[in-house]
Write a structure and sequence with these properties.
Keywords: DNA-binding, Transcription, Transcription regulation. The chain is of the alpha+beta class. It folds into three domains: 7-57 and 146-150, Arc Repressor Mutant, subunit A; 68-138, 2-Layer Sandwich (Alpha-Beta Plaits), CATH 3.30.70; 161-253, Regulator of K+ conductance, C-terminal domain (Alpha-Beta Plaits). The chain has helices at 7-19, 25-32, 36-48, 81-89, 116-128, 189-194, 237-243, 247-253; strands spanning 68-75, 94-99, 107-113, 132-138, 161-166, 172-177, 202-209, 212-214, 227-232.
Length: 254
């Protein structure tokens, strides 16, 4: 099932793709203006939903005792492709198997061997599985980059909706990170409604605070760095953002 990512999730994925070993939750938290606990909670969710599937090291095998890296371009029956990919990954020396959505050349296998004879043995092992080898070549180098669409956008203001979902009719759901100066900070939801900070047609669905997700009640106090999920029945997203915006921004608009 597809898992919807908001801006915080995307930035986490970007930073981990960029340099997972040297990236910490506090570093990402500072970049997106939330708490480290929130980042750790989001990483756990991304792992649980299969978005982040693992953390691996990138190895230069040529520098590691002069090992050879080879790419085998293969054909596998579409109906058997997934099973054959799993069996191929179990062959000693195979380090990566990629399934492609094509009729031919639909299985790419990367393997590491000590010499050409070792690579030939891997090729024979693939053939014994019923995989047809169409081409093969030595890999000279491989470059990895993070997905830039998930990266930082300097044009985005510090206080913003991290996600936005349109529902049936006019209703919208907005996720917003609450800054220190927001009018709603340190108010209970009941107080915010009484003082007109929250409109009657809004419903605060959830509050993410550090590594916890709170079920809101009238006595729940909104704190800075909370990530608040708000349902606006009228779909007035701008008004929702005003309620959670910094006071300086509101004065500027006035």
């Amino acid at each position: 099932m597809e898992y919807r990512l908001d801006e915080i999730d995307r930035r986490i994925v970007y930073e981990l793709m960029r340099d997972a070993r040297n990236t910490s939750a506090p570093t990402i938290a500072e970049a997106v203006n939330v708490s480290p606990g929130t980042i750790r909670n989001r990483i756990n969710q991304l792992e649980e939903h299969g978005v982040i599937t693992g953390y691996t090291a990138e190895i230069d095998f040529e520098r590691a005792d002069g090992q050879l890296t080879n790419l085998y371009v293969c054909n596998a029956p579409v109906s058997e492709r997934k099973v054959l990919a799993q069996e191929a990954s179990a062959i000693p020396g195979v380090i990566n198997v990629r399934e492609l959505m094509t009729g031919r050349r639909n299985l790419h296998v990367v393997a590491v061997g000590e010499d050409t004879e070792h690579l030939r043995r891997i090729a024979r092992a693939l053939s014994r599985l019923g995989i047809e080898l169409e081409d093969e070549t030595l890999v000279e180098a491989e470059t990895h980059s993070p997905y830039t669409s998930f990266g930082p956008d300097e044009a985005v203001p510090a206080t913003e909706a991290t996600d936005f979902v349109s529902l049936t009719g006019e209703a919208n759901v907005v996720n917003v990170t609450v800054p220190d100066e927001a009018p709603i900070v340190d108010l209970t939801l009941a107080e915010a409604a009484r003082d007109g900070v929250l409109d009657d047609d809004w419903l605060v669905i959830a509050i993410e605070r550090g590594d916890r997700v709170l079920t809101p009640h009238g006595t729940t106090v909104v704190q800075s760095d909370d990530i608040v999920t708000v349902l606006s029945r009228s779909g007035d997203t701008d008004r929702v953002l005003e309620a959670f915006a910094a006071t300086e921004a509101l004065r500027d608009e006035g």
